[in-house]
C-alpha cells in the first residue's frame, strides 16, 4: 500500500491534456452505462458548521475504484485552517484491498472539478470561443479558466464578484500567473456581455446569473451548487436555454440547479451520454447552452486512478 | 496524523468490559437522539463478486467521528485472501482534519459487532442466562459467545451449523481456547432446546430459525443479516415474540430482518432507546425477546474513538 501527500501529488498531477483525457474517459464510461455510482453519503456536523461528503464510483473493467472523503468545515478559516480538506483511497476492484491513500487535501477535487468545466465547454461551447466571464473570485475562478485553455483558445477574461476587492485581486493574480488580460466588472451582465463562455464558481444561495445577462451564443457552466441550498442560475435560464446538460440527472435534481426548477418540462442531457455518443448538441453559433456540474464520484475514480499511475511511474 | 496497523490495534483493543462500555455509550447517545447517522453508502462490484459499504456517524459533543470503509470480496478465498477487509478513519469533529487511520482489516468491526450482541443480551436476556446456542460456526460464532461472557455467566455452549464438520471444528476450538463445554447439534431446534440465549451468525438467505425452535424465556440475537438478500429469522418469530428490538429501525427495514416482514403490525424498539431510558423491557422469565442487529455507524465511531484513545495512551 502506498501513501502519498499533497505535495507529491501536486508535483505530478497538473491541469493538462492527459488529466483532461482521464476525466473525460470517466464521463464517457458513465454515458455508456458502465459505471456503478451510488448516491453521495453526506453528514452534517452542525456544532462545528461542518459537513462531510463521501463519493465513490466503479468503472467496469478498471482495476481500481476510489472512495473520496471531503470534509468542509466552514469555521476553519477562523482557526487559520482551510475550509475544505479530504483524501481519496484507491481500492483494488478485484480484491477490495486498499492499494493507495492519496492525502491530497482536496487538490485532486480542485483539478477534476476544473477539468469537468473544460470538458463541458469542449462539447458545448462554440469552437471559436475565446472570451471567458467568471462569476466569483475563488480558486475555481482561476482553475476553470486555466482548464478552459486546454480546449479553447482563451485570450480574454472578464470577472465579476460580489466583493469587488477580491475581483481586483483575482485580476492581478490572473495577469501575473496566467498572462491573461482581465477586466473587472461591476455586474454579472456586464461581465457576460463580451463573453463566449461564462462559468459561475460561487457558493451562492440565490441566483447570480439571469437570462437577460446572457448574450446569444454563450455557453454557461454552473459549477458552484453542490448541495440543496445552493443556487447560481435563475430558473428562467434553465427554462429558456437552447441546450441544457448536467453531469448527473439524479444529482442535479437532488442538489444542483435542477432542484430549483422541479416543474421544468424539457429534455435535459447528461454530459457523459453526449461524449459516449460522440454527439455535438450545438447546431448554431447563436444557441445558448448550459451545463450544471454537481461533481460526481466517477470523476474522483478517474482522477485518482490517473494520479496513482503517475505517482507509481506507470 | 497517526496510522495504525491491525496488529497494533488488536494488541490494545480487546473484547472486554471497557470496550463494551464504549460501544454501549454509542447506543445510548443514539437513543437520546444525539447522533447524526446518514444511511449506509453501498456499492456493488459485480464483476468481482464484491461490494463495499461505507458507514459513519457523529455523536454530538464527541471530539472525533469515524468513517468506516468495509469491502467484502467473496471470491478472495480462492486467491488465498480473506473476504472481508477494511479500515476506519478518524476525523476531528471540530476541523474535519484526518487525525488517525486505523488499518484494522475489519478487526474493530468484528469486536463492535460481538459487543453489540452482548449489549443486546445485557438488556434483554434473563439475568440468570447461562447457556448459549449459536447458529453458524464462523468467527462471530466465537466472538459472540466470548462477548456474552462479559454480561452473563455463560457456562455452556450449543452449536448448530449446516456444515457439520465446521460445527465440530468450532466445538474443538471453543473448548481449547475458551474452556467452555460445547455440544454439537444436528438441528437449530435441538441446539436451542437447552439455551437461554441463541445467536444467529450466518449469511443465510433463508430462515435458519423458526418460532417452534424457541423454548420459552429465550433471548434471540440475529446478527447475520445486513443486506436486503439476507434473512435468518422466520417471519413468525418477529410476529410472535414478546419483545422485538433492533439496532436501527430504518436499517432493519431496509436490510435486516424487518425487511422480510413488511406487514408486521407491532411495536418495535430501538436498542439505544432502551439503554438511554434505562428501561428493562423483559418483565418475566417466560418472555421470548428478539434483537436484530444490522450494524450501525455509531458503533464504528464509538469503537474507533475508543481504540484511538488506547493507542494514543490516553
Automatic annotation (TrEMBL), chains A, B:
Signal peptide segment? none
GO MF annotations in UniProt: ornithine cyclodeaminase activity
The EC number of this protein is: 4.3.1.12
Under SUPFAM superfamilies, the record lists: NAD(P)-binding Rossmann-fold domains (SSF51735)
Pfam families to which the protein is assigned, alphabetical: OCD_Mu_crystall
Q: Which GO terms describe its cellular component?
A: cytoplasm
- Keywords assigned by UniProt, alphabetized: Lyase
Which EC class does it fall in? lyase
Instruction: Give the protein name, as stated in the record.
Output: Ornithine cyclodeaminase
- Species source reads Metapseudomonas furukawaii (Pseudomonas furukawaii)
Amino acid at each position: 500500500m502506498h501513501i502519498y501527500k499533497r505535495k507529491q501529488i501536486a508535483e505530478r498531477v497538473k491541469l493538462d491534456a492527459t488529466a483532461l483525457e482521464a476525466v473525460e474517459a470517466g464521463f464517457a464510461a458513465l454515458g455508456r452505462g458502465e459505471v456503478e455510482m451510488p448516491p453521495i453519503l453526506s453528514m452534517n456536523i452542525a456544532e462545528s458548521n461542518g459537513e462531510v461528503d463521501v463519493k465513490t464510483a466503479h468503472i467496469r473493467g478498471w482495476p481500481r475504484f476510489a472512495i473520496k472523503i471531503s470534509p468542509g468545515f466552514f469555521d476553519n478559516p477562523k482557526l487559520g485552517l482551510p475550509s475544505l480538506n479530504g483524501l481519496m483511497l484507491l481500492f483494488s476492484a478485484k480484491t477490495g484491498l486498499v492499494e493507495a491513500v492519496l492525502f491530497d487535501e482536496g487538490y485532486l477535487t480542485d483539478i477534476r472539478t476544473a477539468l469537468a468545466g473544460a470538458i463541458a465547454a469542449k462539447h458545448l461551447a462554440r469552437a471559436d470561443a475565446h472570451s471567458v466571464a467568471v462569476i466569483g473570485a475563488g480558486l475555481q475562478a482561476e482553475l476553470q479558466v486555466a482548464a478552459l485553455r486546454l480546449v479553447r483558445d482563451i485570450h480574454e477574461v472578464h470577472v465579476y464578484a460580489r466583493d469587488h476587492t477580491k475581483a481586483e485581486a483575482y485580476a492581478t493574480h490572473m495577469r501575473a500567473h496566467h498572462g491573461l488580460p482581465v477586466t473587472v466588472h461591476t455586474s454579472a451582465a456586464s461581465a457576460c456581455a463580451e463573453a463566449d463562455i461564462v462559468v459561475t464558481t460561487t457558493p451562492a444561495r440565490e441566483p447570480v446569473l439571469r437570462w437577460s445577462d446572457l448574450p446569444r451564443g454563450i455557453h454557461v457552466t454552473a459549477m458552484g451548487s453542490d448541495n440543496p441550498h445552493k443556487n447560481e442560475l435563475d430558473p428562467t435560464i434553465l427554462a429558456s436555454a437552447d441546450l441544457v446538460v448536467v453531469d448527473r440527472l439524479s444529482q442535479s435534481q437532488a442538489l444542483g440547479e435542477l432542484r430549483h426548477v422541479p416543474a421544468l418540462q424539457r429534455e435535459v442531457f447528461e454530459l457523459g451520454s453526449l461524449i459516449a455518443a460522440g454527439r455535438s448538441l450545438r447546431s448554431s453559433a447563436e444557441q445558448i447552452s448550459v451545463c450544471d456540474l454537481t461533481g460526481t464520484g466517477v470523476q474522483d475514480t478517474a482522477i485518482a486512478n490517473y494520479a496513482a499511475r503517475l505517482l507509481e511511474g506507470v
